[in-house]
Amino acid sequence: MTLLPGLLFILLGDAARCRLQDGSFTFNGDVHHYAVATNTVYVATNDTLYQLRHDLTLVQSVPQRGVLKGGAQVQFHRVSGTDFSNATFRINVLLPLVESDTLISCGVIDKECGHCEVLKLMDISSLQHSESIQVGSLDHSNASVAVLVKVEKNTYILTALRQSQNQKERTSCTTTLVTVQLQNAEKNQEGGIFSLVDLYGGNPLIESSGEVEFVDGFQISSTMYLLSNVRSGDKSNRIRLIWLKGGGSKTLTLKSLRGATLRVSEAGGHRLVASSVIPGEQQVLWSGVFSADVGRTNTELLVFDISPDFSGEQKPDPDFGSKIRDTSAPEPKTLKPKAVLFRQSNMTSVLAVRHKTWVVFFIGTGDGQLIKLAVDKDYHTSCPMVLYRADDDRQVFPKIQLDPVDRNYVYMPVRNQMKRVPVSNCSMYRDVKECWSAQDPHCVWCGSKDSCTFEADCVDSDWLSIPEDYQEKMVSHRVAKEPTGQITLNVQTHLTAGQMAQSNFACQFSAGSIALQCTSGPAPMFPQCTCILPNGPLPAEVFVNMSLGKTQLLERLTLTNCSDIRGPPTSVLCRQCFEAGCSWSKNKCSWENEGVRNDSVCKRMVSGIKFSTPEISSIDPGVVSFYGRNHAVLYGRNLSDVTRVRLQARTECKPQESPVWNNTGTSLTFHIPSAESKGVVKVCALLPDGSCHGSSTITYQSSPSCSNIVPNSTWLSGKRKLTIIGSHLDFVEGVTQSHAPQEVRLPQNRTYQNLTYETVAAVNAQGPFPSTVFLKVGNETLPCTPTITVYPEPKFISFKSIIVGDYLRITIEKKADKLEMMKTELSVSAVLGEERFNCTMTTKESHNETDTFACEIQNTRVAEFQHLMIKYGDKTVKLQRKSSFPFIWLLLFLLPIPCIIITVVMVYRSKQKKLTAKMNSDMENLELDIRNDIRQGFVDLQTEQIGLIENVGAIPFLDYNHFASRIFFPERGTLMKLCIKDIGQDAGKVQLDECCLVLSQLIHNRLFLTSMVHALEEQKSFTIKNKCALASLLTVALHGDLLYLTEVMEVLLKDLMQQNSNTHSKLLLRGTESTVEKLLTNWMSICLYGFLRESVGQHLFLMVSALTQQIKKGPVDYVTEKALYTLSEDWLLWQAQDFSSLKLKVLFAVGSDGELSEPLEVNSLSCDTVEQVKEKILSTFKSKFGFPFNIPLSEVRIEYERDGCFVPLEEVDGSSEVVGEVTMLNTLKHYKVPDGATIKVLQRKSHPQQGSVKDDENFSRKYFHLIDPDVDEDQRKDPERKKLKLKEVHLTKLLSTKVAVHSFVENLFKSIWGLTQGRAPHAIKYFFDFLDAQAADMKITDPDVLHIWKTNSLPLRFWINILKNPQFVFDMEKTPQLEGCLSVIAQAFMDSFSLTESQLGKHTPTNKLLYAKDIPRFKQEVRAYYKQIREQSEITESEFKSFLQEESKKHHNEFDETAALRELYKFIQSYFTEIKDKLNENGAPTELTEQLHHLKTQFDGLKSCSWS
């Protein structure tokens, strides 16, 4: 009965765990480790161990989840998939021990305790032994090694562990292992399995003196080899090799240590990335991939002879040895490379295999390629070939292995897949010449099969393959002239042949169709045949037919009398000579037996034809996909004679050449051909003489891919704009669709991740139907996985219009469909007679059966139009108004009856109405005003739309140092000016710099720096302002060493956590009451600056721009700064009077003669003051032309054209309204400026002492604008201002503003808590992992505490600062109205991270109510965001170290570190005694205290130094 459920589990189980058609296997998680033994492959992912057959079919998988049991000695017990588990066993060591039929798996349980298991080799579900012990590294890192070694009859585990200065302290359950040790691998050994104890007692070991990262370890015969990167002190990286000779015990083995240093070049500083032994040979040959930089951009493959040297007296090693090491040990011997084989960017792994006399290298790269490189015995390389190429940029695992059963395959892990890749693609070569030209040692031409295949697949010995060394041609010939005058033709085949092919070797010569009679000569003998030609003239062509078994080789030879090849000694003549089979001697062509046969002499000769030497300056584009690119343009000089463009990947490979056209002499057009591999190729310009000049490069990258299309539908007539989302989309040249493949659409707005195009029309088709989108890249057409649906045309039903205020609102009804048409896709105009009125789209509402679109026509009183013209895509439809003819007749018939009744009633009640009219008049007016206000608020709410184009062009980002300094020093005081380094700033005085150097060295001592910070914080006189200044000065001083700054921050954070652990753990990082809290803010700002600019900046700028535009749509009180359109109730202008929009034609006086510019259209309001109009004019000028107007605002005056002359507009003049003692500022309404009026801008001739009335100290008491002053009702002249206004009526303005900017706010929030390609920025992932680790160390189990810590450290400390202060990021000013809106948005942002549920009611503040419905959805997104970061694979230490070093390099020399150090010393000087006491309290060495005194002496000696 258990069989059926078992089968169902296998068939219906985990869909993500499967073997694909190409022979690869996909796992649930990324591959962490794998091992190969006999016919089995073992793969460990994050939480599962897999057992696969050699062909990657699944045998079984075992989850590595379980529970921890026990008291003092905790034990891990595995549980089944459905049972409760609280721990995960992550495997870092996998060692198959075939002799014992066991598999050793070791690793760590939840980043804490070491754990090992011994499993049955052929059944990993069978547990043989389990033990809580550390074997190998506890970290998932490639910088540690664990291998099985044989010492006489014992098998040991040789572990070599990474050593780092910032190694994390482990818990008490962890065994302390040193650098190199030997542990038992079997139970029956002395001390038991995993024991470190030697036969003679003690724990023999090898320690290291510096930072060590191990790359590889292996054993050959009795010698063990360990290869590592070593860094001691300030020295650059060195690559070390250790030899250990297997003795009778562990002690003797480890004491036999000898070492050497591998030197790649004299420059030094290289790192070893990957390693592989070259099998065979008596000498031990070894290959390694070396990197010249941390990022592995430049990598090269080298060969060394690493044969062990145990001769001579054993000397101490400077890097490795027993516990007591001699630091003055001599440098070990140096090994230099035998050959540099291959250079390629970002190589990550290598496997060397010997095949006959050739060595074949399989090389994995960081961009997902597996490259095969064949090398002959003289280290001459053939052209590399690509065996596998990923479409994306996934990195190949650092370890590649051969299939032990079928050695024609290699295993290559890539992310969450195990690939089984054939070592060769022999079958792709169609004839014997192609098979030979591939230069692939694995391939032979099989005569019996007449195909290219593996040698093992050729059943008899009738086969041909490449020779034992590299040759350029399969057949070559030489022409020699004997002293007797006879001419001898020697034909040589460069082949290796099977016995059957060799024994059946024959040659036949012919001239055209006539057999050539050779007069005499030796019989054909493989690999050569000779023909002594008959006397007389040489035949122009000779055909040689060579038979090797069943294979026929026909070679056509062009013969020329060598002495007839004459002319000036040029490279062209030289090559012609060698191609004829002759040789070169004394600058002329001679017979083969009379000169030099090496054609390299031709390369040193000139061409003989005088061409202008071409120069290449650039190529557009310079980066393409591996499918190539059509119509590329090469720019340069002297290009007129260029005939082709040559692309050369490597000198061993045949170059690709592309013809040119549109050659202007300075530019030319050519096609970039496709490439087999990703990488960089050299480009030169080819002249008619065969010479190639100029040096440029083209980079081949992955191909474009698409993951989504938005929207995912179109209409039959086409021309709908769709956006394709994916990667490498900037390489796309055109887009087609399956229903019209011949029509190619050019992409618009291409970026790496997005591409916009217009859809193709479907002619003579009926919708709906699916259509596939294809991307044209080079000469390839790539399908998009997501398809789109083509639907019938949208059907518009009717429209109606209504006048609202000074504009006409038209509502259009459309039948509901699945097109999801947006209002921005419609263009509507209303037709009346011959005149058309543009209608601006405002809103869209969707219902069950209809969609409703609304648009507005401004400044019109026409209510009835004949019809509408609606345009979408490339189609325009005419929409008629519904006929009202029957209704009119009915109305005319019934109209007299109610008229009679109404007349009687009116006569009867007229007297009563007159009596009550006066009583109700005021009430009606009040009711009418309130109704109009409410109606207008409702209309605003329904029609609100911000007219902002999403592509805002150049965003005014501040450069890094101004951004960082505003974060570090938000008050922008003296410290900020001191620390920003000006361009061209001179260095400080030499004497002072020496003092700063001493201080710099001192703060680079972690004990001193942490003691200093703690000492200062303990002083009551050291204020919060001082703490922030200290943190920012330290940030500037240590900006060049972010890695050290991060370490110090971690130490200080741990100290802070210990202080708060017992009382206020949830308040950690909430405020800025300590130095480290401000330090964390600065650190986040540095590390997230790139993410802020690339991912969040545009969305933030769009939101701020949208808010600014929305605020400007309505009145803003010039005195109180309150606005009608805002998000903050505190800044709401609810007393605003009626206003109208005006479009002004603004003219600028240019030149000395007062000429006027072309008119500039500026939007303004009738209620705007003169100063506000000026501001809007200058703002519109800047946004229109991209630069500010050349006259400052204070010197600008404006005039309004009335009746042919210009009237000056002033803020206050004799006509200004005065209420009591308060003067109203003049507005456009006051001057009766109409819509379309002309305004002239001039410069004031005299500079007033006071630029604006706003500069008056009593401005707010002496003047008013829109908000009435506190005076008696009778003193008010304007009846409009006597109307009663209710604040609550205008609260809808808050909501309408929210609706207008909501999409921008949502996009901003999603960009902040969205993950780019599923990964959080390095700093966020690293810091959140740090908080997780600290919570675990402090035994904090409450998940709310961790959530609060993360929220306080990232959103509260960094993002809120950015959201509320966009002027920190952009070159812009923040107005009070904008600040009020940003505070509301920032509050909503923080509420999204809150764990408490808000109780809402009628007394709840409006800023809480405004986003109340959105907050629950935002909270879900935040929880998912935190969860994704937690589940993301851990960032390695080397990765994060590289990131920090790169950030330091990017902003090197941005700040004045000397100034920061001077300011830091002021703190030290003020609290010198307290710092010294704290150092003594912390047990600081005497040298550190002396260094502090030396610092004081140095600074005290600067008599001539003036402090800022």
Give your account of this protein's structure.
This protein has 1508 residues and is of the alpha+beta class. The chain contains 28 helices and 80 strands. The longest helix has 48 residues, at 896-943. The radius of gyration is 42 Å and the shape is globular.
Which features characterize this protein?
single chain, 1508 residues, alpha+beta, seven-stranded antiparallel sheet, 80 strands, 25% helix
Alpha-carbon Rg, integer: 42 Å
Shape: globular
Ranges where pLDDT stays below 50 over 5 or more residues in a row are: 1-16, 983-992, 1272-1276, 1503-1508
Strand content: 25-35%
Q: Average pLDDT across residues?
A: 85
Annotation, overall tally of beta strands: 80
Tally of separate helices: 28
Lateral strand order in the biggest sheet? 47-49-52-51-50-53-54-48
Q: How much helix, percentage-wise, in residues?
A: 10-25%
Distance between the termini: 88 Å
User: Could you say which structural class the secondary elements and strand pairing correspond to?
Assistant: alpha+beta
The major β-sheet equals:
8 strands, mixed
